Amino acid sequence: MRVGERARAHASFPWWQPDFAGGERAALAHLASYFAGDRAQRYKATRNGLCGIDFSSKFAPWLAQGALSARVAFAALRRHEAARGTNESTYWLWFELLWRDYFRFLHLQHGRRLYRACGLNEAAPASGHDPEAFERWCAGRTGHAFIDAAMRELAATGWLSNRMRQVVASYLIHDLGCDWRAGAAWFEAQLVDYDVYSNHGNWLYIAGRGTDPRGGRRFDPDRQAAIHDPDGAYQALWACVD
Prior knowledge:
Layout: H1 3-10, H2 24-36, H3 43-46, H4 60-65, H5 70-84, H6 88-110, H7 131-139, H8 145-157, H9 162-175, H10 180-190, H11 196-207, H12 221-228, H13 233-239
Helix pairs in contact: 2-5, 5-6, 6-11, 8-13, 9-11, 10-11
């Protein structure tokens, strides 16, 4: 990656920004900054963004490391709503905190059953696996520009947007025919905000091996690219990364 390209890429995710440091002090400062502006009021409309800092809350790394508790984040949200009002976006921030708790309770209930190939779905077909396809996916060399951009971002930064986590998980499972547990393990090795409960719960959801009765979730990567990266900016940003 050339110097100018590296600078643009670094600007697209938070961990190169001085405000994103470890520890409780930085977590509380970020929490206060987030709710001081209008980002929470726009969260529902921006949450599927791919590039930049402000489209999502970015609470996850501090939550995952224990520097920020869900209760403290929830209390800050309620104070913001009392001052600025509630809307669909502030509701969705609350809902995401609930979703995080749900995956914890799921582990308390089912434990190691969640780590079987079939997960909680005894009728699930046996998981196949293609080691070479998996290696290409990890390296961002599948040949699909949208998928490869995401996997290169993950390798370079330790982070992916929620939208792209779902898209690349779906691609690995439903398009490449690989074992969902391999993908979950790769995320564990890469994510700066890795959380065993949320990570595993979301992979089970995409694979159709969790509690959702509707089965697995396949995201059409071409359609996802057309909706969320219509000008190709995200793909171009990470196309230059080796």
